[in-house]
Amino acid sequence: MHSADLPHSPAAERNQGPIAALLRALLPDHGTALEIASGTGQHAAHFAAALPGWTWQPTDVEGGLFQAIAARAANAGATNVLPPLALDVLSPRWPLQGEVFTAHAFDLIYCANMLHIAPWACCAGLMQGAARHLAPQGRLVTYGPYLEDGVPTTPGNIDFDASLRTQNSAWGIRRLQDIAAVAAPCGLALQARHAMPANNLLLVWARS
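^ thats the sequence. predicted structure below, dont judge the formating
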């Protein structure tokens, strides 16, 4: 399937380059990554091509975009992208079907732009799953807009938060301090905060 015919996220197109550059600086040459909420598959294809020593496991809560994810990886020549799997962060079983991921299986768990368009309970699900499946020295990387105590919120993010809550009362940009409070009982703590374009942050979480 030609890339022009595949579902496309303009935001993913814009941010994949800066994120990939930071991941290359943060990560070793080799490892195994689990991506939560892969969506159109643009990040999976781009990052796997940029990190050829890494095996990339894409997932999403529904299978509607699985064909697009696989096609994007093939078009990018990213042979290190595994077939996508169905995964719901709220389930204690990752993935939903097939062989359950082993404990401490992943050196990286990556999740972009999910927390603000999902119920708040998904934050706890993500942290609990990361605690189960991250390698001892593994890292959880989350990307997106966040609210921070003591840091002025940009007008764009204020408007975006209001728009999200209008669409669904369970959505909204999350406070970084609230996410950290959910991560702590799972044994995870914020290791690094990286400012990114368009008022986003890339956050690195690791075992405390």
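The mean pLDDT is 96.
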